[in-house]
Amino acid sequence: PDASGTALSVPKAELHMHIEGALEPELAFECARRNGITLPYADVDDLRRRYDFSNLQSFLDLYYTGMNVLCTAQDFTDLADSYLARVRQQGVRHAEIFFDPQAHTSRGVALETVLDGLEASLATSQERFGISTRLIACFLRDRGPDEAMATFEALLPHTGRITGVGLDSAEDGYPPEGFAPVFARARQAGLHLVAHAGEEGPPEYVWQALDVLGVDRIDHGIRAAEDPTLLRRIARDQVPLTVCPLSNVRLRCVDTLGRHCLPQLVDTGVLTTINSDDPAYFGGYVGENYRAVQREFGFDDTALREFASNSIRASFLGRDERERLL
Ligand code: ES4
Ligand code: ZN
Predict the structure, then answer these.
(1) Where are the domains of the chain?
(2) Cys-Cys with 70: which of 11, 75, 285, 313 at CB 3.0–4.6 Å?
C-alpha cells in the first residue's frame, strides 16, 4: 500500500545536505554562461551522464569541478532558492545546510560573497517557503588541520551567521583527531559540532569524532554498524546519525539499498534521520530518500513519522521551535 503519501507530507527537518551538492546541471550551465566560464562538458545531458560514481573520491572530483561556476553572490542565492523550492513540496520545515568555505576561497571567491549570497535566500526562507534555515560551515578534511584552523579564523567575524561547523570531503586517511584543536575553538565560540565519520572510513573514525572532537551529531556513521560496542554507545547517548541512503548506494558505500544498515540502526534504538547529502547528484532530494527506504524495507507510516520526528529532535533549533514542529 502507498502509505498515503506520508513520506512526502510529514513535517521534517533536513540535517545533512551540502548546498553545493544541490547544483542541478541546468543551473550549472546558467551560472557558467553568465560568468563566462566554460564547463568541461558538452551540455546538461553530457554532465548528467557522468553521475556514475565508483566511490566518494570519484564524486568529489565532479563536485569540485561543478562548483567552479559559482562565482557571485547571485549564484549562491539562486542555488539556495533552487533547493528550497524543491524541498518545500517534500514536507521540509527546517534545513541545516552545509557549505564548504575552502572550496570557494581556494579559487578566489570571498567568504563574504558566499555568506551574503546564501543569506539573501535563507533570510526569507520562512516567509517564502515555510522553511526555517541554519548554516553549518564544513572544513575539507583532505586539506588538513592547519588550513581548517585558518578557515575558522576567517569565519570568526561571522560566527553569528552560522550555527555550527562540520568536517567533510575525502574521509579515508584523514582521521578526525587531527581536527581536535579547531573543533575545540569552535566549541568555545558557542558553535554546534558535527562531522562526517564512518561513511567510507572505519568505525575508529566515529569513535574519534565522538570522543576527541565531541560532536553533537555524526554525519553518515553507517560503518558504526560494524562495531557493536560503538553502536550501543551511539544508541545509549542518543547521538543522532544523519543517514543518506541514496548517497550511500550511489557512492558504493553499500552494494545495494537492500543491504543498507538502516533497519539495524532502527532496531538498535539509534536516533536515525534520513537526508539527501548531495541531492542533485545522487538521484533525489530528501523526499526521494524517504520513498526509497519505504519501498525497500516496507517502513509503514509510523516508521516514516519516527524518522521525521527524529530529524526535528536532532536539529539545532531551540526547544520552543522544535516543539512547534513536532
Ligand atoms: C560529500 Cl557524500 C560526501 N561525503 C563527504 N563529503 C562531502 N561533501 C559533499 N558531499
Ligand atoms: Zn555529506
Answers:
(1) 3-314
(2) 75
By CB neighbour count within 10 A (0-12 exposed, 13-18 middle, 19+ buried), where does 36 fall? Answer: exposed
Ligand 1 centroid from CA 168, angstroms: 6
What ipTM was estimated for this complex? 0.98
From 216, 217, 193, 221, select the one nearest 206 (Cα to Cα).
221
Cell numbers at residue 293, please?
527506504
Q: Which residues contact 274 (CB under 8 A, 6 or more apart)?
A: 243, 244, 245, 286, 289, 290, 293, 307, 311
Coil, strand or helix at 194: strand
pLDDT band at 126 (very low <50, low <70, confident <90, very high): very high
Q: Is 217 in the pocket of ligand 1 (CB under 6 A)?
A: no
- pTM exceeding 0.90: yes
- Residue 1 confidence class, pLDDT cut points 50, 70, 90: very low
Task: Kindly report the protein residue whose alpha carbon is nearest to atom 4 of ligand 1.
Answer: 169
What class, spelled out in words, does domain 3-314 have in CATH? alpha beta
